[in-house]
Automatic annotation (TrEMBL):
It comes from Hahella chejuensis (strain KCTC 2396). This is DUF503 domain-containing protein. Gene3D superfamilies: TT1725-like.
Length: 93
């Protein structure tokens, strides 16, 4: 079993309420949460209006698949998260 712990921080420009923050992030969070090889939590800055932090656990049966899933995760976040990613850290498990 291979995997990564991924921590991202992001900025939501112009976000005026926690409700708006949830609305702007819920689509990609739900999309990632449906992936059987991922687990995602809001790990910091939960009460901050214009910033957020998620920790994502990614698991795969081998290193090649883990690398492929990591690349897909980066692409999904870049294309679907209505925010500017300021930190993308990955650590092998």
């Amino acid at each position: 079993m291979h995997g990564f712990v991924v921590r991202i921080e992001f900025q939501l420009q112009g976000c005026a309420s926690l409700k708006e923050k949830r609305q702007r992030t819920s689509g990609v969070r739900e999309k990632l949460g449906r992936q059987p090889h991922l687990a995602i939590i809001e790990s910091g800055q939960a009460d901050a209006l214009q910033t957020g932090e998620w920790t994502i656990i990614l698991l795969a049966p081998n290193r090649a698949t883990a690398d492929k899933h990591l690349s897909q995760l980066e692409q999904t976040l870049a294309q679907n998260l209505d925010a500017r990613i300021t930190v993308f850290e990955q650590e092998p498990l």
